Amino acid sequence: MYKVHQIHENLRNNLPPLNSTVSSAWNSLKSALPDSCLAQESESLNFAKVAKKENYEMGTFEKDIEGVKRSESDGVLSSESEDGHMGEHRKSKHKISEWEAGWNVTNAIQGMFVVSLPYAVLHGGYWAIIAMAGIAYICFYTGQILVDCLYEVTSEGEVVRVRDSYMAIAEVCWGEKWGGKIVNLAQLIELLMTCILYVVLCGDLMVGTFPKGIIDQRSYMMILGVILIPCAFLKNLRHVSTLSFWCTMAHVVINVVIMGYCLGFIGQWGWEKVSLKLDIYTFPIALGVIVFSYTSQIFLPTLEGNMKEPNRFHCMLKYSHIAAAVFKSLFGYVGFLTWQEDTEEVITNNLPTNFKGLVNFVLVAKALLSYPLPYYAAIDLLEKAFFQGKPETIFPSMWDQNRDLKSWGVAFRVFMVLVTVMMAVAIPHFNILMGFIGSFTGTMLSFIWPCYFHLKLKGKTLHWGTVAYDCFVIFLGVIFGIVGMYTSGRALNEAFKMGLPL
Amino acid sequence: MFYPSLIISFVIVNGESPVFENIMEKYESADVDPYYNYGPRAEYLRADNEEHDDDHVHVVTDIRGQVCTMTKLEAVILLRYKGSDKVDEIEIQMPDSVTSNGTCSQQVDDETQQNLIWGNFSLCLIYARNETSWNLRRILFTISNADQLFGKSVRGGQNDVVLTSVSTTAIEAPVGYAYHCDSDTKVELLSDLPYEATLVLDDLHIQPFLENNAEFGPDISCPEDYISHRRKRDETVPIAVGSALAVATLATVIGYSIYRHFKVRDVIYGTME
Fold it and tell me: Which residue is closest to A412 within chain B, CA to CA?
């Protein structure tokens, strides 16, 4: 008894006390984490929103607090310069925080395809899970370099934002005439197809929940079109960010619900069923699902330009991609372990009926909440291209002096919602068609062009390792594009051979 | 159990009891041979049948003249020689006007049949029912007095070639309902002789075990038809929803225009001071 007491005394004297150990461990952990995202709000810097052609010639890259000087020199009142007239506080009122930008990126990269991830693990095994993490990193990298292309180092050594959009980068690299138009067209196609896909998916989900009802798929899509009409009134990115936040919440609910259900079967998980082999014939299917779920590059220039603190952009991008990779890998892995070979293409089909109905409803809500982001981005693109007022563009601006939409502006926006709904109703086999077209535009916008522009604009200043990595990503993009187009093309051919669906 | 109930059913249907008892015995004791030509047996129970020419509906009536089976169809039999290298096929088309006869019964678990006869050919449809539903249980196709088929003599010196369906067909409906299929229905027929056939039924509209009226009951459609019929019948829902969408669109645009008109007017009058 005495010996135990002695040992106890020795231990207490020699080991450091517990609470100081814990606190020192916590301090070292905190110092290891990057603190730029957790720091206090620094001074708000408004970078140049629109770099007109005259600015290049004038060679003045100014850090404008109000943007008034620049807009006056242009002589053209664009919507951004109207903001500048109103003063700084009005401008920053519509700017978004890094969290709001994060919800938007999460909306884009953690989309509806999450329900197909266990199916991807079925066909790809551990390689699919590795791909989920690897592709997340590559897309984070291309997003980063794309936004880097918006900045130039001036003669004084300052880093200044000289371009404000993907299109502007292309104009510099490929020439004024066609460069911008090509990228604009690719972006517009990708965005509109995403919108249409959400409507199609909603229709599919509703019909899947009520297969014997009198309402058919087309009618469901049109009913949902009525719900989407208010999207025409979205005025700025803050509204869209709020909707993206709720979309992320719906996504979290689906993840929690399905993973919780899977955890209930933990005793029956098939740990050994996850294959280590790489099957050449089935892996492309898995890869397609994974690759095209990470494409957010179209939104990044706009998001970064609208952030209150653009210096936190990289941090936001990193953590949203990490979160996406973790969630997706875990979901795909757990989903596959539960159902193994019986895993369906859409995991909700594996669920019991009542449960499936509930999850389907949440998925429909998620799709409806995901729709505003690509829709707003498409409208923004069209506005910048066609609705800035003469002499630059054919049509006058949709906005009046008070930043309210004009009536015909609303009519145009509602018309665009109708276009997406009508195309969803009318085009048969839309999923496969999107896979086919998306394999081309998606790989261009997300893999090939960011690296190409990066090399073109900054190639001279880059380390050879970075150059090699850029070339490697371009090569990967080409491979994904070809494989994607081939498999979708074949599937499309098969589908149309069977006749048009009714 | 079966025998007395059959008597009773024929008493009810036909209204005359003693005359049919002997015939019932004959019917009851005969072996049901799947390859036996059912044609002659029907004579025992055959009543006078007239051809109803309207829409080429072939009927079977009972002794009292009440219609118990109505059939409307177009049939083509594609006859092949089994095991031949060449793709030899004889196409036998059922004409519009055929002789129709058969048996009637209202008894549960009973079978009725209908023979459609033209030239040397006879198509026999055997219907069965239980308490709630009926189905087309078997189909027999008979070629009578067949000396030569496919350039060869009919084997075994048999004059009649009988082909029968292998399993219960999928054609079924509740009692009181008709089966309607505009799409093609194919039935495979086999024989112990080296012949086989595919029976293609088109524009099928049939109903056995009719009770009081010579009219088809409500339709049960085949699955292939369901989609195309649905399209014809259910266009109302998409049209209604599409109209609602159009109305919502117009309401939004017009509503916003009115709102803006009043708002701009207020601003103008407000700033005019």
Answer: B253
